[in-house]
Amino acid sequence: MEDIQSHKDHRNIDIDQVGVKDIRYPITVLDKNNGKQQTVANINMYVNLPRQYKGTHMSRFVEVLNEHNKLISLQNFSEILQEVKRRLNAESAHMEISFPYFINKMAPVTGSEGLMEYNCCFRGNMDRGLDIVTIINVPITTLCPCSKEISEYGAHNQRGIVTLKVRFKKFIWIEDLIKLVEETASSEVYSVLKREDEKFVTEKAYQNPKFVEDIVRDIALKLNNDPNITWFAVESENFESIHNHNAYAYIEKHKD
User: What is the distance between the alpha carbons of residues 160 and 168, in angstroms, rounded to a whole number?
Assistant: First the structure.
């Protein structure tokens, strides 16, 4: 049958990225505690398209996914991108894999167990070289230092979200990045809390007040001291409990 995509195009314009978006796909990722974890991802895959070609072969993206669906991780990300480039005869390939990741987390006092969800993403480009960014979103609790200082009774707190993006030299576990973020918060967020746990969490937050500025600076300090991290971007957003706006802070740094 005739291959329309391979016909010549006479407009003389390169396309930077062409491909498929929002593929819902079951994947298996590496789990530090359990070996592997099954989840469902949203996947975007693109290649460049030189000016002389009319179109690309969309079905080949999904064919590559089918061949690697048993395990998708940072360790075989480059292999997948290489295969995309080869199969579509492209000079560059790009892939984004966004997925919910679950950790069985114990409450701080009673040890009650519950699954915590963390939204994660692996984003990679392969052109002349390989570039991979790991992105995690971690819910946290913060307590306002100003409110604590000026109030006679208590202080307002709120749930927030930290988005951490990192480039690295060698493999890094999702769990380790999550732990790094949670340790900087006024308190961690849990899916199951009994009364004893709730008392512990609220008192811990009161004793450890943090602005969004404190959160991003504390995380940046840890990443600055980690020789495995070559670049990072960290943002913290508080869903304010007494204001009609959110509080926000952002730091980005190239360490090389």
Answer: 26
